[in-house]
Design brief:
Layout (H helix, E strand, L loop, with lengths): L5 H16 L3 H26 L5 H11 L2 H9 L4 H4 L3 H5 L5 H29 L4 H18 L3 H24 L3 H18 L4 H14 L3 H11 L3 H6 L2 H47 L1
Helix pairs in contact: 1-9, 1-14, 2-3, 2-4, 2-7, 2-11, 3-10, 4-10, 7-11, 8-11, 8-12, 9-10, 9-14, 11-14
Length: 288
């Protein structure tokens, strides 16, 4: 199997980033909505697969195995994903476009991802999917949303950093492969790891928390959530806009830091370092 070298991977990503930075707003929004929908569908599938499994380790392995379908659809078909676009920092550092281009893309894509995920939230709630296992999936959906909306700032920040470190490595791994099978395998494993470890991904949470809020409006799901998971009224009351912010703020910051960290490191190792050494070699030759 042929693969691109690390330097080629970084350069290919920067070429793609230039296209992202100069993309027209309608296309950027549309691709952002699609990416939000794809990631949300990964969340739907993961929750559906694991909701009735009592063994935590087995549930995490199964959830991690199926969740990557969201990113795979983006990698193979196309989409603008906020977390992956944090890698645009490499092309920004290489002065291929301005910081304002980067900010514009991340802000527009973040909002578009949220809209796309919310479309899936509404469709899933009205689809009957949460009625599986006599409504136990609806109860599990509430439980997941409650857990995420009560995360501490430090936990959300650290978990967000770790998550997007892996997500961005998944994207870079996929760029290494030159064939579809290679891209699928290379992309799948880091996403499997972040889900298995329970790290926080902001776009996935755009599905998990709002759909939990919708599920909270069904008294049957609420009764089962209390019975099966010991969810309290106080926890349910916090499952609102305030709960969304409690999760979204630290996780978004963490995802930004994690994604940009790996982007900066890979850029300096593979591009900037060589440029500096190249200049040093030229200066040495000129002085000889």
């Amino acid at each position: 199997m042929q693969i691109n070298t690390p330097k080629e991977i970084v350069d290919l990503n920067m070429q793609g980033a230039v296209k992202k930075a100069n993309m027209g707003l309608p296309k950027m929004i549309t691709l952002g909505i699609l990416a939000g929908m794809f990631i949300a569908l990964g969340g739907v599938t993961s929750s559906t697969a694991v909701h009735s499994i009592s063994n935590l380790g087995l549930a995490k392995v199964l959830g991690g195995a199926v969740f990557p379908i969201g990113l795979l659809m983006i990698v193979l078909v196309g989409g603008e994903l906020f977390t992956g676009n944090c890698l645009m920092i490499m092309a920004t550092l290489d002065k291929r476009f301005t910081v304002m281009h980067l900010i514009r893309n991340l802000l527009v894509v973040f909002l578009a991802n949220f809209f796309g995920a919310f479309i899936i939230d509404v469709l899933v709630f009205h689809s009957g999917n949460l009625n599986l296992s006599g409504g136990a999936l609806g109860a599990y959906t509430i439980k997941v949303a409650v857990d995420k909306s009560n995360i501490s700032f430090v936990n959300g920040l650290a978990s967000g950093i770790l998550c997007n470190f892996l997500v961005c490595m998944s994207i870079m791994n996929g760029t290494a492969a030159k064939d579809v099978a290679g891209k699928i395998l290379a992309t799948w494993f880091p996403i499997f790891v972040f889900v298995l470890d329970g790290f926080e991904h902001i776009v996935a949470n755009m599905y998990y928390i709002p759909v939990g809020i919708l599920a909270k409006t069904d008294s049957h799901y609420v009764a089962l959530a209390k019975e099966l998971y010991g969810i309290t009224e106080a926890q349910l009351e916090h499952l609102d806009f305030g709960g969304i912010l409690q999760n979204f703020i630290p996780v978004t910051i963490g995802n930004l830091l994690g994604g940009m960290f790996i982007g900066i490191i890979l850029y300096f190792i593979n591009i900037k370092y060589d440029k500096i050494n190249g200049r040093s070699s030229e200066n040495t030759s000129a002085n000889s």
